[in-house]
Amino acid sequence: xxxxxxxxxxxxxxxxxxxxxxxxxxxxxxxxxxxxxxxxxxxxxxxxxxxxxxxxxxxxxxxxxxxxxxxxxxxxxxxxxxxxxxxxxxxxxxxxxxxxxxxxxxxxxxxxxxxxxxxxxxxxxxxxxxxxxxxxxxxxxxxxxxxxxxxxxxxxxxxxxxxx
Length: 164
Fold this sequence. Notes:
Structural class: alpha+beta
Radius of gyration: 18 Å
């Protein structure tokens, strides 16, 4: 569900009174920090504010892996697709994650619990395959460990919900 971020976007834009193109990346970062992703409406608003075509704003945002156009799940799973991780069992990890979460690459589960992203090398090739969930790194992963991790995340979330 796309938020109606106009007021928040305007507040963010006011922090950048210099409407020069060099503020595009910092503005995109601020928008993503606020919403957790870059809503489509914000692309248009940023373009008008910086007096540049929407295509230029979108083109810049889509060029960098750091920017996302969909919200992340409560548990955002990143799976390394660097050469070493891929050769060991990267595809099997992706398949296990998709099977257990019902989430494809770049998507979010209907309940908002999981999102999945394949990413370039995480820089720990000797410890691969690597997986990162919400800033916590897991090394030497295999499909069995991946399945256990996902089930543990589901269990933890259920426990938290019951406690509330």
